[in-house]
Amino acid sequence: MKGLQAILHQVEAKYLKNETHDFRAGDSVKVHLKVREGEKERVQIFEGTVIGRGKEGTRQFFRVRRIASGVGVERAFLFNSPNIVKIQVTRRGTATRSRLYYLKGKSGKEARITEARHEDVKPKETVAAVTDAPPVQAHAQATAPAPAPK
């Protein structure tokens, strides 16, 4: 079976995109998709919350859910699809699970996911210690005389 799997991985490698996707369940994303209408092609944006990711290789996908006109709309996207132009993370969410299927039964405030804090935000103790420090003196400018005009 290992020989067959090696062949399968070799064939799949042609179709894999070399992009890394840095988002997980609970994050809000905008997925920019190519849509063909007759002979015209345009980009349509699907914005929602990621409720799960799955599989690997060419079968790797993620599922996005949003509320449109009071109705829950859920859509699964393949990472390696040629129809995906880009994936843009708009908001990081804190989720304690890898799949948020429980959101399907929730609505309104119940379906909210709290936003993740940024790593660069300092704790209050550190900020207070910095503000209690004396003001820093500005660097003195060099006292070299200016060149005389000729």
How is the secondary structure organized here?
Layout: H1 2-12, E1 28-37, E2 40-54, E3 61-68, E4 71-78, E5 84-91, H2 124-132
Antiparallel strand pairs: 1-2, 1-5, 2-3, 3-4
Explain how this protein is built:
It is a single chain. With 150 residues, the protein is an alpha+beta fold. The chain has a domain at 15-103: SH3 type barrels (Roll), CATH 2.30.30. Helix content is 13%, strand content 33%. It is built from two helices and five strands. The protein has helices spanning 2-12, 124-132, and strands at 28-37, 40-54, 61-68, 71-78, 84-91. It has a five-stranded antiparallel β-sheet with strand order 4-3-2-1-5, with no helix packed on it. The longest helix is centred in the N-terminal third of the chain and has 11 residues, at 2-12. The radius of gyration is 25 Å and the shape is extended. The termini are far apart. The model is unreliable at 120-131 (pLDDT under 50).
Which features does this protein show?
single chain, 150 residues, alpha+beta, SH3 type barrels, 5-stranded antiparallel β-sheet, 2 helices, 33% strand
Largest sheet: 5 strands, antiparallel
Determine the fraction of residues in helical runs and give it as a percent range.
10-25%
Gross geometry: extended
N-to-C SSE string, H for helix and E for strand: HEEEEEH
Read across the widest sheet, the strand sequence of neighbours is 4-3-2-1-5
Low-pLDDT stretches are 120-131
CATH architecture field of the domain at 15-103: Roll
How many strands appear in the DSSP assignment? 5
Distance from N terminus to C terminus (CA atoms, Å) equals 87 Å
**Mean of residue pLDDT values:** 81
